[in-house]
């Protein structure tokens, strides 16, 4: 079942999602710390979604389980440490006005009490719902497992580093100006604009992948592979008389499964399309 959500509808959802902090500023008295901490919690949600995207994908061969078994724990520890350090930094710099019962707490023990004390639960659930909806839409349009695990492991860092350096710098500026209302609203507006920018960039990337292409370097590797069809797995080399013989071998199925996990199904489709195109040219040239 395809999840048909148009681009304007998603932009509206992003605007509504980012309007929740505006309510928090006026209704719950949120300051820059509350906004920055909420955005930090969003990083944890994005990391959890990335882990789901690494694990929840079609498996056609036992070899496909090896990459998630290694990379998912590695990503969890590495990204977890990154967020841990980031969270400590946020609390130490901006959490000086915390309630007495929260003062002295640090990550991770402060997360649940702070969510309750600062009315962050429902805004957090809204962020989670949006991320799940965005993933569902991506799956319905591009298929499950369209992105390689290697690509997914680095995806959150690009967004987090650029966005949060700017947000933290804005937090310093707001603190020095005694938290003006206009400044808080500008911070929310900036975050909204960055969310729309990153979402639109992801949409453009996905649109390019609907008609997948491979670069010249990959083409040369594929050409060399087709000219001398052989597969080496665990140091054991197996040669074939033709690509068709190789394609029907269990070794090829295993190799394809590993590659699909590494680079994603979209790139595999592009390579297979190039192989078919090359075979057609060879066939027509031989007539």
Give me a quick take on this structure.
The chain contains eleven helices and two strands, in the order H-H-H-H-H-H-H-H-E-E-H-H-H. The chain is mostly helical. Helix 1 packs antiparallel against helix 5 and helix 1 (7-27) packs antiparallel against helix 7 (181-209).
Commentary on this structure:
With 287 residues, this protein is mostly helical. The protein folds into 2 domains: 7-209, no CATH class; 216-286, no CATH class. It contains 11 helices and 2 strands. The protein has helices spanning 7-27, 32-55, 66-94, 111-117, 121-142, 149-176, 181-209, 216-227, 243-247, 250-263, 265-286, and strands at 230-233, 236-239. A hairpin with a 2-residue loop joins strand 1 (230-233) and strand 2. Helix 2 runs antiparallel to helix 6. The longest helix is centred in the N-terminal third of the chain and has 29 residues, at 66-94.
Main sheet: strand order: 1-2
Tally of separate helices: 11
Q: Kindly, what is the distance between the CA atoms of the first and last residues, rounded to a whole number of angstroms?
A: 44 Å
Question: What integer is the average pLDDT?
Answer: 78
Alpha-carbon Rg, integer = 24 Å
Question: Would you list the SSEs in sequence order as H and E?
Answer: HHHHHHHHEEHHH
Oligomerization state: single chain
What share of residues is helical? over 70%
Shape: elongated
Total discrete domains = 2
How would you classify the helix and strand content by structural class?
A: mainly alpha
Number of strands: 2
């Amino acid at each position: 079942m395809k999840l048909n959500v148009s681009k304007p509808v998603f932009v509206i959802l992003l605007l509504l999602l980012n309007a929740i902090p505006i309510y928090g500023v006026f209704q719950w008295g949120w300051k820059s710390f509350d906004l920055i901490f909420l955005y930090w919690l969003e990083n944890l949600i994005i990391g959890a979604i990335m882990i789901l995207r690494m694990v929840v994908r079609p498996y056609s061969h036992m070899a496909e389980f090896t990459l998630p078994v290694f990379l998912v724990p590695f990503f969890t520890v590495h990204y977890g440490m990154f967020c841990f350090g980031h969270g400590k930094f946020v609390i130490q710099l901006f959490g000086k006005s915390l309630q007495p019962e929260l003062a002295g707490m640090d990550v991770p023990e402060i997360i649940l009490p702070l969510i309750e004390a600062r009315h962050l639960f429902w805004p957090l659930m809204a962020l989670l719902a949006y991320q799940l909806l965005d993933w569902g839409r991506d799956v319905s349009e591009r298929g499950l497992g369209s992105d390689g695990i290697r690509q997914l492991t680095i995806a959150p860092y690009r967004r987090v580093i650029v966005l949060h350096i700017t947000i933290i710098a804005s937090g310093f500026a707001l603190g020095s100006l005694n938290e003006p209302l206009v400044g808080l609203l500008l911070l929310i507006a900036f975050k909204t604009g960055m969310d729309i920018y990153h979402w639109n960039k992801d949409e453009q990337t996905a649109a390019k992948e609907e008609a997948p292409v491979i670069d010249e370097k990959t083409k040369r590797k594929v050409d060399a592979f087709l000219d001398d069809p052989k597969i080496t797995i665990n140091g054991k080399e197996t040669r074939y008389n033709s690509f068709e013989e190789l394609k029907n071998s269990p070794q090829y199925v295993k190799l394809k499964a590993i590659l699909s996990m590494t680079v994603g199904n979209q790139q595999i489709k592009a390579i297979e399309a190039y192989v078919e195109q090359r075979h057609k040219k060879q066939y027509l040239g031989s007539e």
